[in-house]
Fold this protein.
Amino acid sequence: MTDATVGVAGERLGNVPYLRPHPGPAIFERRAARFRALAHRHALSDFLELCASLSAAQATAAAGMDVRLPERDLPPSRPLRALGANCDGWRGALARIVHELSPVPMPDASRQGLSRLADMGSAQLTTLAERILAGQFVGLDLAAALFAAAAMQVQLVTVASQVGIEGLVRSEAGCPMCGAPPVAGIVLGDARLRYLACPLCASQWHLTRVTCSRCRSTGGISYLALDGDPGGVKAEACAGCMGYLKLFYLEQRPAADPVADDLATLALDQLVHAEGYARVGVNLFLPV
């Protein structure tokens, strides 16, 4: 599945893959390493180290997960939504994550959220998962939701890596695999192609640059960056819908991970929020 694309300067780029090859569960180990690298001498080092431990716990849970695609055919539009929230796969991953994090230092609020999650019954867990899938975080127990979302990521990443892309319906809003809005975008260094990244299933899909990822407007787009920043990250802001999405440029940040680097650049969020813009999507490691 490809896009015939013309670049922002008018150059013809030819056929562009709509979806990048899925990284599969290996993404969790790489993300843990990226969090640790970013935590070095960072003002939020303790928080980023906790995220590294959580990503490492996800990698352990993924290694022990045996989740297969269902025998029934999945729909061509957002196929992972058909799996629903009432699935044993992510609950098994959750139990493993809770176990792995038991000796890890963390703030009291996080520890209490982890404890509440471990005590939830089946119906409560299903409701929590349904709200995470729907992006309904207002009024949610966010301390518990962070760890539940991490377990759901393990399942959805594992399954997404098994889904064939032939016949997959392109999405006009959100991830074509699961429907979640993008957490961030990456810009490749060679052809300057821009791919949006899913916070839930880790799929990456193509969207032409200088196009709002929320409303698809190509007018009123501006780019904001922090003064003195060495480069590699900008916020793409749309005057039409007042939404913004961070872009990480792999030429300057070759090891960038959309989830990890997003959390390491929260100072840019503060700048863009001050200009009146709101995030297009949610980072599930920090849902507010």
The chain has two domains: 2-21+171-279, 26-160.
